[in-house]
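User: Reviewer 2 asked us to show a designed sequence for the structure in our supplementary figure. I'm pasting the structure tokens here. Could you produce the per-position amino acids so we can include them in the response letter?
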């Protein structure tokens, strides 16, 4: 069965965005070792999950990057554009984006169906509300949290809807030259 992996940036105190989604705390200048790690992670999946709120910005941003082969993010952008995407929505009737289908059923049922399909793993990048719902339903099999060397006084978290304690096992920890630290967890069984 395929795994659902989360890749998300966080502050040192666990926020994934400021109170209004601000990302000014993020380390934008990734070091080569972090870029290589993230590139390796992209080879492990063949499906991207997105919530409706994040889909438009995500798809349009990476589509625009693919228009300039000289852009340093071009290779990543090609992967994000070419990889099939599933957008979870209760309001959209059709997809406005290429290589994208809509999932309109119950979150747990839709993710379970995707996990049972043949192929490589599945990845989700955010946003906070959508990932919170995945965490609440205990659907994430691997947490790749990129902890930035910053703390903010308040903000958005993906663990705010946890009903009971979520026990995680640390399977990898690694620091990168730019100051970001990877904390990779899997749920304890």
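Assistant: Here is a per-position design you can include in the supplement:
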């Amino acid at each position: 069965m395929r795994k659902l992996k989360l890749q998300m940036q966080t502050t040192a105190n666990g926020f994934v965005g400021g109170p209004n989604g601000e990302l000014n705390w993020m380390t934008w200048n990734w070091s080569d070792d972090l870029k290589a790690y993230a590139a390796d992670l992209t080879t492990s999946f063949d499906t991207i999950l997105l919530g409706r709120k994040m889909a438009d910005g995500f798809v349009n941003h990476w589509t625009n990057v693919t228009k300039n082969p000289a852009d340093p993010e071009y290779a990543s952008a090609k992967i994000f554009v070419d990889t099939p995407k599933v957008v979870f929505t209760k309001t959209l009737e059709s997809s406005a984006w290429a290589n994208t289908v809509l999932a309109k059923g119950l979150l747990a049922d839709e993710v379970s169906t995707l996990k049972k399909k043949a192929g490589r793993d599945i990845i989700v990048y955010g946003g906070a509300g959508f990932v919170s719902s995945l965490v609440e339903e205990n659907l994430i099999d691997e947490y790749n949290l990129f902890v930035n060397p910053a703390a903010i006084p308040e903000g958005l978290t993906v663990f705010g809807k946890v009903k009971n304690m979520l026990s995680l096992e640390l399977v990898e920890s690694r620091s990168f030259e730019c100051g970001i630290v990877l904390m990779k967890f899997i749920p304890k069984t």
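For the response letter, you might also mention the following. Helices lie at 32-42, 52-65, 74-82, 107-116, 128-136. The longest strand covers residues 168-175.
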